[in-house]
Amino acid sequence: MQGAVHGKFADPAVEARFQETARSLRLPFVRIYGVLFMLVALAYTVANPLLVNPVDTAKLAVLFGSVLALAGAYIGTTFWRGYVVRPGIDFAALLGIVFLVGHINLILFDELIDMQEEMHAVGVINRLSVSAFAAVALAGRPRLFLLWLGLDLTVFLSTVLPVQSHGAGLWYGLLSYLSGATIMVAINFAIDRSSRGSFALAEALEAERKKNEDLVYNMLPQAAVEKIRDGRMVADSYADASVIFIDMAGFTKLTKRVSPGHLVEVLNAFFNHADRCAAQHGVEKVKTIGDAYLAIAGCNATRGNSADAAIAFARDVLAGVEELQRVAGTDVGLRVGIHSGPVVGGVIGATRMAYDYWGETVNMAARLEGTAPVNGMAISESTWLRAKDRAAFGPPHNELLKGVGETCVYHAQPVPVRSPLPDISWVA
User: Fold this and answer.
1) How many whole angstroms separate alpha carbon 75 and alpha carbon 130?
2) pLDDT tens digits, 99-138
């Protein structure tokens, strides 16, 4: 994040976010500062009738009343939502306050001169209190603060020069003002630098947190992540899910004919294509097992009928077989098995966690895959009964499945190519 320490952030959007965040965080301090300044002005208002002549007391009452009204309106404005994106409010309000303070000090200076023989102690309002206020309120906007100081100096000179009869007094006044202004610039700069550094660090941490969160959500469903964060066991039951098991036919022969690198390219093309099809149809990828791809519909991701989603997903995956053969450079194919029924999902273990599914439905889908024609699919009767689109499936027939026995199965032959795999150069 360039510009976090020196000057503005390079990205205007980041700079705008920083300004809004920093001003929001400074709001309590600006309000406290404003209230303290109003209390000081109120104290002067109470003390003036005791120490100042009636004519000047009336003038000061008007000026102090204006200061209190302006400061109060300024503090009230900080509660407006649009305040944090409008630094011009601070600029105008504090410039008006310092203008009024300058005129108040002129009257108090005159009183000090008139009362010198009686040794009355008459004090003036220190302009640095307003300058410090501006240094905090306009932190993050150094150019705006320097402009404010320039106008403040103009106000200072316009109120002091007409009544200054001795050149030394002017020079000492300027020296006093400039020394204080230099300190205020340093304060404004320090707040700006530290705020930018903290913001840059927070942004970097947030980006890293987002990356980690995306990685976790890529491996686990959001509901499971929330349970793990709360220390709860992740165990879910789904009454009607459709499990899809896709295996690559001829993979064993392929491993003997191609290099390991090329073999990985072929699998990567297959799995990436299946991932895109899964995202398109709202099907959840469970895992890959060697050259097999396990997915499920009707659990954490699927919308609508799980059987229809599973079949549509399988058809789009099979439609990419022609491109898969081009990538492999040989005759390979895919078989798909789909079965619908109840499953149990959850996370087991404390390291390398993954959300997995178990149950007879998962085993049945794997068994059905073995009966499917190459580049076709085999679905169970329960899936066929749930599906609305049955036209592509032939008549039922019994298959002897290992560990299951005779089972009614429906087969669908290869479908036309509709969704080709990406070019191998893109996959790599």
Assistant:
1) 14
2) 898 888 888 777 766 655 553 444 567 777 888 889 988 9
- Please choose, from the candidates 210, 144, 193, the residue with its C-alpha nearest in 3D space to the C-alpha of residue 9: 193
Task: Please state, rounded to an integer, the average pLDDT across all residues of the chain.
Answer: 83
User: In whole angstroms, what is the distance from residue 7 CA to residue 366 CA?
Assistant: 61
Helix, strand, or coil (residue 237):
strand
Q: What are phi and psi of 7, to 5 degrees?
A: 75, -160
pLDDT for 364 equals 92
Q: Which pair of structure tokens corresponds to residue 341? A: 């029924």
**Residue length, the chain?**
428
pTM, to two decimals: 0.57
Token pair in block for residue 223: 């509901």
* Cα 66 to Cα 269: distance, rounded to the nearest angstrom: 75
Pick out the chain residues at pLDDT < 50: 2-6, 119-122, 417-422, 424-428
> What is the token pair recorded at 281?
């149809």
Name the nearest CA neighbour of 105 among 121, 123, 128.
Answer: 123
Rounded Cα distance between 212 and 206, Å, is 10
Q: Phi first, then psi: what are they for 338, rounded to 5°?
A: -130, 130
Q: Which residues contact 90 (CB under 8 A, 6 or more apart)?
A: 30, 74, 134, 137, 138
Cβ atoms 398, 406 nearer than 8 A: yes
- Pairing assessment for the beta strands 405-412 and 235-249 based on DSSP bridges: unpaired
